[in-house]
Every structure is written in C-alpha cells, then in structure tokens.
Amino acid sequence: MSAGAPSGAAAKIDEKLILDWGARIGTAARNEEVKPAQLENLIASLDAIQGREALLATAAFALRQAQRLGTGRTTARLVNQALLDLYEKGGGKDEARKMLSFAKWVYEALAVARPRVRAEQLTLEELLKHLAGGR
C-alpha cells in the first residue's frame, strides 16, 4: 500500500482542497487559452482506467496533451500536481471528477472577466475577491 493511501474505506478529502485546485486549474487554462475540449478530455480520461490509478493516468494524459499541442503547460503541471495530491491523500475518481468539473466551471466563468492572476498558489476565495474587485 502506498503512503497516504486509505486502508479500507475511501478517505475523506477536504472539499476546500478540491475547490482550490479547481480554481487554479481553471484559471491557468483560461490564462493559457486552453481549448474547452481539452478540459472535457481530462474528465473523460478518468474513465479509461479502473480504480484510483485513473488519477495517475489522467495526470500523465494532461502532460502528454500539453506536449503534443504545445500549449497548456502550466495547466498540465497543475493538473498533475492536483491529481497526485488527491491520490496521495487517498482520493479517487469522484474527487478528481469533481475537481476537474469545477475547473471547467471556473474556466467558463472567466470567459467574460479575464483576470490575469497567477494560478499556481491561487485559492477560490482569492479568485472570488479578485473578480469582485477586492484586489
């Protein structure tokens, strides 16, 4: 069993962690003008592999797509970090799907308001304050 993996029942992943990673990924994707289909492909790729290892396969897929397309490198790096983080904390496909779906929502929300904020350490709360004009 790997470090941080749950024994028995699935681990409870903090919702704030999922939302913050989603905010980072969605913001990076918008900043890099990643195509919406690429976010949908990431979500779909979770179903290509059975079990929690799907998180690792999706992380690899994100890196491959950024290399192949020549764009979205920061987004792919954040997806990789997020999925590794979830995996190491015992998360599974449900948490990964929720995070990537939320990233897509953030991406879509930023279509009108296009703040140029650094995504790497962003939290959802900071993004919302920025969008509200508080920063």
Characterization of the model:
By secondary structure, this protein is mainly alpha-helical. It has one domain. It is 63% helix and 0% strand. It has helices at 15-31, 36-45, 53-69, 73-88, 93-109, 124-131. The radius of gyration is 14 Å and the shape is globular. The N and C termini lie far apart (44 Å). Residues 1-9 have low confidence and may be disordered.
How would you summarize what this structure contains?
With 135 residues, the protein is mainly α. The chain is built from six helices and no strands.
How big a fraction of the residues is strand?
under 5%
Considering DSSP H and I runs of 4 or more, what fraction of the residues is helical? 55-70%
Mean pLDDT: 86
What structural class should be given to the helix and strand makeup? Answer: mainly alpha
Gap from first CA to last CA: 44 Å
Largest sheet: none
Number of helices: 6
